Amino acid sequence: MRKHWILYVMAFPGLLWFLLFRYVPVLGSVIAFQDFQIFNGIGDSPWVGFKHFEYIFTYSNLIDVLRNTLLISLYQLVFGFPAPVILALMLNEVRKKWFKRSLQTLFYLPHFISWVIIGGIFFELLSLDGIVNGLVRQFGGEPILFMQQPEYFRSIVVLSSIWKEVGWSAIIYLAALTGINPSLYEAATVDGAGKWRQLTSITLPSLLPTIMILLLLRIGNFLELGFEQIYVFLTPLTFSVGDILDTYVFRAGVLEGNYSVTTAVGLFKSVVGFTMLWVGNYISRKSTGESLY
Amino acid sequence: MRKRVRNVQSVGMAIVLLTGLLIGCGKSNAVNETGDQTGEAGANNKGEQVESFRFLKAPISIEIPGQHPYYDYVISKTGIDAKLETFPWNDYTQRLQTIIASGDIPELFRPAGTIDQTLITQGGALALDDLLQEYAPNLWKKFPEEVWNKVRAASDDGKIYYIPKYDSDMPGRSIIMRKDWLENVGMEVPTTLEEYVEVLKAFRDKDPNQNGQKDELPTSGREGARWMDSMFGMYGVAMFEGYPEWQVVDGQMMYAGITPNMKEALAFLHMLYKEKLLDNETFLNKSDTWNAKIQSDKVGVWFHIPYQANTVFDNLKKVNPNAELIGAPLPKVEGYDGFISQKPLAFIDYMIPKAAAEYAPTILKYLDWWYSEEAETFMIYGLENDTWVKEDGKIKYLPEKDTQEKMTLRGNGTMSALSYYDTDFFEKTSELLHGEFTNVIQQMWETARPFSRFIESDGMPNSVYNGFGDIGSHKIYQEYAAKFIIGELPIEKFDEYVELWKKSGGDEVTKKVNEWYQKSNQ
Asked: Are residues A179 and B10, on separate chains, in Cβ contact within 8 Å?
C-alpha cells in the first residue's frame, strides 16, 4: 500500500466516480417497491411491496411483449454480434493503409447519427418512391410498404442496427488485433501456413478473450434493446412484432409519470441480465477458460 | 490461475477502450439547464423595486431576448417581472419532470403529460379558488362558470388547481382543399359524401397538379390514422387530432373508437385506401413527411389548422405558383349527424406549485393584467408610437414598423399570459400575422363553424386512464384501426376488437369517464 501510494491516489477519483454515479443510484431502485411521489421523495412515499411487479406481470399482452423482446435480442446477438468481428478481420487484411483508414471511417460514421435520423432515412429508403421499391419495380415487382409489414420489421431492426454500430464495435477488435505479436505470423509463414490457416490458428485464438468478454457483456444486456431505435421504427401496424419491454414501459410508466413502474421493469431487466451474465460467465469459464471475473 | 492472469492482461487494452466508450457515450446530459434565473427582486429602469417570479411557458418559437422594451413596458404597468423560461416540445414533459424532481420548479408553469394530475393528487399544486377571486378578478370573470366547473371536476376535492387555456368559438380545425386542383378538374367544392368521393377520384385520375405524372395523393393522413378527423367526423365520430375522444351514446359516455359509427367510418376509409384515394403510406407518415407531401404539391385534401395554413401556403407557392387553398364543408353522409370536434379546453395553461404559495398574489396580479384593455392593445398592436399611433382617439396600426419577431414576442405563447381566446381575438391577430392570406383563413373558419361542435369529453383529466396505458395511449385503437383500413382485417371483426378493448381495461376506464362526466355536469 505504502509502496504504491501514488497508484492509489490516481485510482481514487475513478473509484469515487463509480461509487457516486454507479452504486449510489442503485439504491434508488427501492422506489420499485413504493408508490413513488415526486413531491414527497423516497423518504415519504408509501411502500407497496410487489404491487408494481404484479401490475407488469399481469399485463394481458405480456407474452407478446416478452416474445418480441427475446426474439429481437436473439437476432441481434446471432447476427449483430459476429458482424464487427468479421468486419475487423476483413479490415485487418487490407494492406493499403489509407484505404483501410477511410473504409474504417466510413463504417463507423453512422454511429454518430441519432436513431431519429436513421429512422427517417430508413422510412425514406423503404417508402413507395424509395430506392428499394425503385429496384423492386425495375424487376417487375409490386412495390411493398416494408415498414408496415410485420414480417419485415425485425429484419429491418436488426439490419439497421448492424449498419449503425458495426464500424464502431469493430474498433475494439481492431485494437486487439494490433496487439498480436507479428512474429507469430512470421513463424507461421515460415512453417508454410496460408492466410486462412493464420486466421484460424493465430488471429482468432488471440482475439478470443476480447470476443468472449464482449459477448458476456452483451449477454448481460440481453433485455436492453435500446428504446430509441424500436420507438422510431414502430408503427401501430407492427405492434404485434415490435412492441418490446421498453415500449411497453414507455406507455405504462413514462407517459403516466409512473416512476415506480419503470423502475420495477428496470430492476427486473437487471436481475435477468445479471443472471444471464453469471450463467454465461460460468459456462465460458468451464468451456473456454475465459471469464470476466 | 496463471492463464487467467495472462488473459486479463491481454484483454486489458480492450477493456480500457470499452470503459472509454461507456463513459464517453453512456451518460447524456440529463440534469437541469434551467439557467440562473432566480426569484429575487430586481429593479426596473426607474430604480423602483419590482417583484419577480419564474415563468415556465410552453415551447417558444423564438430565442427569448435578454432585454427588450416590451419587458420594460409590462414591468412599468404591473410592477412585476416575469422571467420567461421554456423547453422544446420533444422533451418538454421529461425536462419538467426533472426540474420538479430536483426541487427547482418555477413559480408558475405550464404542465404537460400527466404532470398536472400527479401534482394535484400528490398535494403539490396550490388551490386557487379564493386567490383567483381576490387577486385576478378580471381573469376570474372572463371564464364562464362551466369552465371553472370542469376545472373543479378534474380534482377529487373539487378545487381549482389550474388555469385552463380556453379557445372559444373559433373553429380550430377545418377541411382544407386545393382550390386550383378543383378548378383544374372542373369541379365544385363537394358538400356530400358522393361528391367528395368523386372529387377524390378526379384528383387521382385527372392530373390536377398538371405535371404530367400520376403522383397525386387525393387525401392523406398520418401514422396512427391521425389527422383525418373530418372523415371520422362525417359519421359522427368524435375525433380530435386523430385521437378518439369520448361522446355520449344512449346517455352514457362511450369511447369514440368503439362506436358503431366508428365501424362505418373505418369501412369508408378502407374503401378509400383500396381505391388509392387515401395515401397508401398514411400509416408511415410522420408529421414532417405528411407536411412535405402537402407542401410539395402532392395532396388535394387534408385536415388541419386554418390559423397555421399560411406556412403551408407559402411553401406550396414556391413549388406551384398557381396553388390556392379553400376551406371545404364537412361532407354530408346520409343518416349521420356529422361534426368536427372542438375542444376549447384541450390544454391546461398554468399551475402554481404549493411551494410557491407566497408568490401567488404577485403571479395572479400579473396574469390578471393580461386581461385588461391595454394588455390586449399591446398583444395585438405592440407599443404606442412604435408600431401604432393614436389618431382621432383610435388606434392606427403601422404594419411597416412591425416585425415578425415583435409580433411573436408580445403575442400568444411568448410574453402574453392570456389564456382566454375568442374569435374576435384570433381575427384581429390573423389580420396582422397573415396579411392578405387572412381572407382565406377567415373563409375556412366560416365554412367550418357550422360543423364545429364542443365535445362532451372536453376538459377531462387524463387520470381516468391511470393504470391502463394501452387505452390511454390509444394503442389498441390505432393498431386495429390501421388493420381495418388497409384491409389486413375484415371490418366484420370489428366486434372482436371492441371486446378486446373492453377486456384490456376499456370497461374500467369507461366507468371512470362516466363518473367524471356526472361530476362535471352537476
From this structure: yes
Question: Which alpha helices (H) appear in B186-286, and where do they start and end?
Answer: 193-205, 229-233, 260-274
Let me know: does A238 contact A153? Beta carbons within 8 Å: yes
- The conformation of residue B416, written as its DSSP 8-state character, comes to B
Q: How far is A289 from chain B (nearest CA, A)?
A: 8
Query: Tens of pLDDT along chain B (522 residues)?
Result: 344 444 444 444 443 444 433 333 333 333 333 333 333 444 444 455 789 999 999 888 788 888 899 999 999 999 999 999 998 877 788 888 888 888 889 999 999 888 898 889 888 899 999 999 999 999 999 999 989 999 999 998 999 999 999 987 678 899 999 999 999 999 999 999 999 999 999 999 999 999 999 999 999 999 899 999 999 999 999 999 999 999 999 999 999 999 999 999 999 999 999 999 999 999 999 888 999 999 999 999 999 999 889 889 999 999 999 999 999 999 999 999 999 999 999 889 999 999 999 999 999 999 999 999 999 999 989 999 999 999 988 888 888 888 888 888 998 778 999 999 888 888 888 888 788 888 999 999 999 999 999 999 999 998 899 889 899 999 999 999 999 999 999 999 999 999 999 999 999 999 999 999 998 887
Best B21, B274, B284, B483 member to test A by mutation, with max A CBs in 10 Å, is B284
Cβ-Cβ pairs closer than 8 A, A with B, add up to 116
**Residues from A in contact with B at Cβ < 8 Å:** 21, 37-40, 55, 60-61, 120, 123, 127-128, 145, 147-148, 171-172, 175-176, 179, 206, 209-210, 213-214, 217, 235-237, 239-240, 248, 251-253, 255-257, 289-291
In B, minimum Cα distance to A249 occurs at B469
DSSP, res B491: G
Helix pair B423-434, B438-448: axis angle to 10 deg: 150
Residues 16-45 of B with CB under 8 A from A: 17-18, 21, 27
List, in order of start, the domains of chain A with CATH numbers.
59-112+166-287 (1.10.3720.10)
Under DSSP, is residue B413 helix (H, G, I), strand (E, B) or coil?
coil
The C-alpha of B438 sits at a distance from chain A's nearest C-alpha, in angstroms, of: 34
Which residues of chain A are within 8 Å of residue B14 when distances are taken between CB atoms? 172, 175-176, 209-210, 213-214
ipTM of the complex in this document: 0.85
How many whole angstroms separate alpha carbon B88 and alpha carbon B105? 17
Show the cell assigned to B353: 406549485
Domains of chain B: 42-169+345-384+421-432 (3.40.190.10), 174-343+452-520 (3.40.190.10)
Spatial distance between the Cα atoms of B138 and B158, rounded to a whole number of angstroms? 22
β-pairing, B49-57 vs B347-350, is: unpaired
Q: Which of B14, B225, B504 lies closest to A175 in CB terms?
A: B14
**Among candidate residues B298, B297, B301, the one with its CA nearest the CA of residue B200:** B301
